[in-house]
Design a protein that fits this description.
four-stranded parallel beta sheet, alpha/beta, five-stranded mixed beta sheet, 291 residues, globular, 14% strand, disordered N terminus, 9 helices
Length: 291
């Protein structure tokens, strides 16, 4: 299976400049979006018919952009009291620590960690980059062979033996040494290392020899969802998906969302309606390739 322009909370596609009709944000957030998408802002500025000119040049930013100032950023935590530890001794350190762990500083941290693991040789080649420990990845033109997924009935939602050598990869220059250093957090809901540790540099472009049964050419988020019957775990998924959109720099809802579930069991989600705000089409799963 080839996932072209693959994205995720895990794999995210490289985003092209969005047109005005692809912007899916409330008016109060548009200044932040245009400030972080300067190419689209310039298009709007030069277009007499652009309806968003009032949202340009506001100086507002989420907080993770390189040109973002404290005065212009969306939020900054304010701590009422001071808590001291061996690592935090001032109120400023306390606020900054919270910001990096529970605010848009978390997105900034992931962006700073991004490492290219498979470098394209040519313009149309594959691409793979991940944050530390493969907690978040962005890929294009990636190949998956799900033959082992279909070989037996599975009850675990996060089996780690789905891929063998050669079952996942792309046409690019792979840095296997860098990949091997990122396996310390290998765990079903903490990392994509189990799924990507067998990534190989293919001799040809994925899908060029027509071996793929399914080809997806739409930006796609691949997610591992936690327990859908728990409100707490559901909103962990919600926040992770929202943070991934920020890391990817796109709020377009014309995307696919694929649930990474290796089991053959039904997945119950009591709060599915909340996640549907991220996409227009129906959520899919690996059951599609198991048939």
């Amino acid at each position: 299976m080839l996932l072209r322009c693959l994205t995720a909370f895990v794999f995210l596609s490289r985003v092209q400049s969005s047109q005005y009709d692809n912007i899916n944000l409330p008016d109060e957030l548009l200044p932040y979006w245009f400030n972080s998408h300067t190419d689209v802002a310039e298009q709007c500025r030069a277009d007499d018919k652009c309806p968003y000119k009032a949202h340009l040049d506001s100086g507002r930013c989420w907080g993770y952009e390189l040109n973002c100032t404290r005065d212009g950023q969306y939020s900054w935590p304010r701590c009422d009291g001071q808590w001291k530890s061996s690592r935090i001794s001032t109120l400023e350190q306390q606020e900054r620590s919270f910001y990096r762990a529970g605010d848009f500083g978390y997105v900034q941290h992931r962006l700073e960690e991004m490492t290219v693991l498979c470098q394209p040789r040519d313009r149309d080649d594959s691409y793979l980059a991940c944050s530390n420990f493969l907690q978040y990845c962005r890929a294009t033109d990636i190949y998956f062979n799900f033959r082992n997924l279909r070989s037996k009935k599975r009850r675990s939602r996060y089996d780690e033996d789905v891929f063998q050598a050669g079952d996942v990869g792309g046409r690019c220059k792979m840095d296997r040494k860098a990949l091997k250093t990122m396996g310390q957090h290998k765990s079903p809901l903490q990392s994509w290392y189990a799924e990507l540790q067998e990534y190989v540099d293919l001799n040809s472009h994925p899908g060029s020899n027509h071996t793929c049964d399914i080809v997806i050419d739409k930006p796609t988020y691949i997610v591992k969802l936690d327990a859908g019957v728990s409100l707490y775990h559901h909103y962990c998924d919600f926040i992770n998906l929202y943070a991934s959109m920020h890391v990817n720099g796109s709020f377009d809802t014309d995307v696919l969302v694929v649930m990474w579930d290796t089991s053959s069991m039904r997945y119950n989600d009591f709060f599915l309606g909340d996640l549907e705000g991220f996409y227009r089409s129906r959520r899919s799963s690996l059951a599609r390739v198991r048939r």
